[in-house]
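re: that chain from earlier
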Amino acid sequence: MRIRLPLEDRSVLKELRAGDEVYIDGIVVTMRDLGHRRALEMIRRGEPLPIDLRNGGIFHAGPIALREDGSWRIVSIGPTTSARMDVYVYDLVKELGIAVIMGKGGMGPNAVRACRDFGCVYLELIGGTASLITRSVKRVLAVHWLDLGIPEAMWVLEVEGLGPCIVSIDCRGNDIHREVLERARRRAERVVEELLREGLAPTRS
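^ sequence. v structure.
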């Protein structure tokens, strides 16, 4: 499925299931640790963010960017580990109306709760695919908070065919990482029980 951000109709997210493949067109905004922290500080002070993120998408990424002839060019961009942002994500989605979160690896219980309570989704990109992701960036529309440094700044990017993304957490709170771990735990328990029956494992005390 292809999704254009910002969304005109959030109901499209209800069609997505954990494990689905998605490509993103439109506008995405990069945010890392310091950006999340600053955004929440501004919200608490009642200050508007430099861009309206309602029904939009944030991308956990820290690009390498180059200033050329008065404009910016993204040299390389790839997802950063999203678990670090779990502490911020619930309040950020609640306050800003974010529809799509993108990053690398699994997220934690706050992201699951945010997706379930506010009808957003977390999309996972594959680490090590920066060259592929960079080709999807068509242009830099704006950059904010450069005082945080280029990787931590808020980059507003126009993208086309950003992906493939996997729906890691859907708007019902289904989490593929949690499901895989649960299946692995159940399988490990079955293996241990079989080994115990066959006398190939030490008995439990």
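The first helix runs from residue 33 to 44.
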